[in-house]
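May I ask for a sample protein chain and its fold as tokens?
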Amino acid sequence: MKSLDLSTQDLGRRAGRASDQIVHETAPWIEGLGRCGHVAIGVVYVTIGVLAAQTAFSSGGDTTDSHGALGWIVQAAFGRVILAALALGFAGYATWRFTQAVRDTESKGTTPTGVLNRLVYALIGATYGVLALSAFDLALGHAASARGSGDAAARDWTAWLLAQPFGQVLVAAAGLGIIGVSLVQFYLAYSGKCCDSLQTSELGQTQERLVRAGGRIGFSARGFSLAIVGILLLVAAYDARSDEVRGLGGALATLAEQPFGPWLLGIVASGLVIYGAFMMVKARYGRLVVC
């Protein structure tokens, strides 16, 4: 029996070494996919911001989210080719996030906080995996348009939650969770930690300051947008009405309806464009640990 236990342990060690070897061999590919993913996310946020800015200044445009932005991109010249490239980028980003979660590449550990961080990485990976599938569908012509899908999906999920026992509590918890994420974005912006993973030795002093300022502005704009989504969820929970829920696109539209709305929307839209540009810079200068 003792011999059998030793044999099992030996097999386990061999399997672990083989797994580590595979990760080390594929690390350059995973890192490359992660960088492509940052570019894809940047393109989408720039598109969202530009469309929202056009709406703010009454020159067309739209208030939309990531899925809706794909619906606009597919209509551009070579739109399907661009979407196919974005889909690969999103899939690569999802792969990188899953690697972070499973391999614990950032040494979060197995404490409750560490496990929570790794679960967040996995959730982000799943989110961008779904976005990759949506982009592939549009690139292949399987869906006519993705505009407005974020608001509809948010309402559907909220309606389902409200129909469950303690549904209003669940929706309120979701709203508080999103507000919590928005506060994290503000913290990362205020503290400058949003730029911690940048390797800026190749940048000049002025360029580095611009990049860091851009990161802070971009994360602040993203945090502000998410805060609106969270607040609308809290309102929906209080009134028990799913039709009051909005996704990112609806949140931007709600912002435009407020006093001085066009100005507020223009400022947030500019921030989202800057966030997209920052993600592209991060694709080049960010430190991506994969093993």
